[in-house]
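Lecture notes, continued. The same structure-token format from the folding unit now serves as the input rather than the output. Read the line below as a description of shape only.
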């Protein structure tokens, strides 16, 4: 097809092809059709059907027969593609549901070639091309990018970028798909407590960033889906999150992804998943500093009376998984951890000085015994477990348990702990995926860190 107009010649080769989607639980769309604007370097691809169960479509573009590269999430069954002069273009799409699952990609479209070498005009330099402003009745000689003629809270510029009609009010649009920054795709030697970072939050409606959901999964040889090790939603950790202690293991491969939520409750698509490999030594999870790394105090003489202390008023039940002992990080005696009901094993246990936690908001005034961090495995995901903690130096009469981690900060959790009458032991009742489990997911492992205050805090 050849057209001539506005003193220039534009030649566009367009062939339509059905874009077929076969997605989990999703119906296939009908024939895709190309709509193109004469003398303008754009083609709009539209498709019908395949809307049941679809949260959005992912659009990919190939230039000159190269690799298909993700462009953006499309929330309407159409998308405008900007053409580059002198290059060929092909697109394909796939469908994604609200759980982040995608179907196979469509067949690629036929080739679209734009041979015009003239740059696109934007007379008022407001980021919106003249042809689009003329098409929708805007003024190409006046900067009207931030105006909102249809009153739907979406500016003209945002409507242009989203491919929507600035004259027709749109429903609230979700945030754009997050961009992952660090750890980068394929990163190796990542520390066991990395900082996860994303790019900026962008919302077509200009809504505020309300929360971010962070998810990490461990890749295993015997499971396609892997094991979810962290799944938390935070209103504080919006574009960066420090992974809490004892979530990651050394020498493992993990995938991480995020999704944003805006102030209207709209959720973005999941980001692409980035994979990384952790360091092959524990480093950040050292033992007690005595060289054996088993968590036991170095001087056996000091342990002679400890078994009697451990058995003092422990409450019902006895340990079924042995004991682990460490000096308190505050040099206030030593403490022991005994797995009790529901505990299959304890594979991480260390004393932590309160000063290792930089966040002071909500921190109790005094933590004589310091903090205790551990990771315990339970029989099956979601189960409850009881952990018996024993202290050579008694807890205060009205000591209160405080949990802490790099995501939620300090929080009083007195309901999770019962202190014995003599103060030499306390029983923690924790549920996998519950309030005391830092990783936020029922995955068969309970990760926690906390300590007892000297007295109740107001």
């Amino acid at each position: 097809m050849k057209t001539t107009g506005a003193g220039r010649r534009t030649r566009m080769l367009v062939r339509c092809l059905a874009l077929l989607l076969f997605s989990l639980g999703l119906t296939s769309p009908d024939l895709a059709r190309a709509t193109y604007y004469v003398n303008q370097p754009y083609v709009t691809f539209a498709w019908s059907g395949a809307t049941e169960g679809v949260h959005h479509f992912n659009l990919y573009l190939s230039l000159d027969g190269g690799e298909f590269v993700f462009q953006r999430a499309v929330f309407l069954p159409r998308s405008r593609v900007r053409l580059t002069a002198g290059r060929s273009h092909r697109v394909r799409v796939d469908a994604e549901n609200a759980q982040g699952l995608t179907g196979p990609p469509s067949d690629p479209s036929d080739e679209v070639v734009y041979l015009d070498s003239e740059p696109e005009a934007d007379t008022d330099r407001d980021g919106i091309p003249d042809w689009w402003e003329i098409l929708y009745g805007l003024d190409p000689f006046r900067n009207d990018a931030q105006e909102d003629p249809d009153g739907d809270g979406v500016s003209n510029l945002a409507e242009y970028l989203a491919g929507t009609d600035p004259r027709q009010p749109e429903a609230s649009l979700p945030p754009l798909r997050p961009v992952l920054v660090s750890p980068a795709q394929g990163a190796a030697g990542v520390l066991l407590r990395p900082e996860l970072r994303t790019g900026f939050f962008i919302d077509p409606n200009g809504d505020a960033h309300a929360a971010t959901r962070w998810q990490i999964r461990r890749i295993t040889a015997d499971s396609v889906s892997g094991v979810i090790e962290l799944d938390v939603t935070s209103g504080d950790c919006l574009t960066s999150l420090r992974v809490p202690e004892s979530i990651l293991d050394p020498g493992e491969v993990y995938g991480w992804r995020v999704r944003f939520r805006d102030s209207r409750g709209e959720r973005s698509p999941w980001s692409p998943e980035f994979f990384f490999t952790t360091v092959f030594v524990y480093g950040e999870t050292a033992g007690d500093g005595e060289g054996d790394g088993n968590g036991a105090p170095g001087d056996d003489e000091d342990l002679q009376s400890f078994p009697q202390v451990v058995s003092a008023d422990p409450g019902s039940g006895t340990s079924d998984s042995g004991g682990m002992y460490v000096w308190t990080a505050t040099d206030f005696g030593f403490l022991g951890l005994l797995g009790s009901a529901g505990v299959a094993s304890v594979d991480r246990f260390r004393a932590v000085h309160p000063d290792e936690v930089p966040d002071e908001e909500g921190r109790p005034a005094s933590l004589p015994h310091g903090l205790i961090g551990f990771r315990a495995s339970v029989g099956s995901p979601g189960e409850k477990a009881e952990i018996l903690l024993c202290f050579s130096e008694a807890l205060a009469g009205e000591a209160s348990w405080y949990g802490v981690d790099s995501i939620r900060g300090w929080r009083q959790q007195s309901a999770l702990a019962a202190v014995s009458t003599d103060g030499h032991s306390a029983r923690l009742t924790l549920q996998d995926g519950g309030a005391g489990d830092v990783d936020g997911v029922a995955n068969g492992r309970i990760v926690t860190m906390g300590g007892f205050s000297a007295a109740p805090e107001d």
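Point for the exam: The chain has three domains: 2-114, 180-278, 300-452.
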